[in-house]
Amino acid sequence: MVLKNYILNIIILVTTTICIAQNPIEKEGWTLTFNDEFNDTVLDKSKWQTSFYWGGRNYENDIVYYGLDQFEFSDSSLLIKAEKKELSPSIPYVSGLLDGNKSFKQKYGYFEIRSKNPTGTGFWPAFWLVSTEQWPPEIDVFEFYTSHPANWSTSLHWKNKQEKNKRQTKNYKIDANSSTDFQIYAIEWTPKKISWYYNNKKFRTIKKGVKSMIFPMHIIISNAVSEMKGMNLDDAIFPNYFEIDYVRAYQKK
Description:
Elements: H1 2-22, E1 30-36, E2 64-66, E3 71-74, E4 77-88, E5 91-95, E6 97-99, E7 109-116, E8 123-130, E9 138-143, E10 151-159, E11 165-173, E12 183-189, E13 194-198, E14 201-206, E15 218-225, E16 240-252
Parallel strand pairs: 2-5
Antiparallel strand pairs: 1-16, 3-4, 4-5, 4-16, 6-15, 7-12, 7-16, 8-9, 8-15, 9-10, 10-11, 12-13, 13-14
């Protein structure tokens, strides 16, 4: 038994070391400009507000309200809690979001999150960038509809030369269950293109519309409750959690 435990500890140590080595906080050629490792037991309110940048806590006709206290901490990660809690007949759910506009805005760079999605149907976790100057632009690093935990949705919103709002969305199937394991999602935004990364590997690049994205953007992390994409809320599990290990941003040196 002693030998078995020793071997198990060695395997855990090696696995942890490899994971850290593959994704250290410092990146060659990049300067860290913003991060939250969520190692404390309270939310850092110098970095985050719990409402949208315009002050709202829900969209018009939305079924979810983003509350002040929907956050828990465990094992050096943040959990955004979604609950079935009726605030009014039209708003039967409460969840949480983080908006970083008051502490951090950046034009171009590398933006990264390591996270694990809620389980089961009925949830719409997202990691996205948006400008406070106008909408669009918006970059959706990821959106998931959790009834399909391996389907990753990526989107770009911009204004064309005629000032019309344009959008390009593309979905990908990842090789893991985003609700049971932590995954790393990121984008690299340059003046000419945006590339999406999954577990440090590039898989999509878009150039269309990128030149019009001239405003600095900030980070939003949200855990919506939704019936989109055919998700059945009658089968949803509450409370449910969107777990974030860290979020980081970089600029080229």
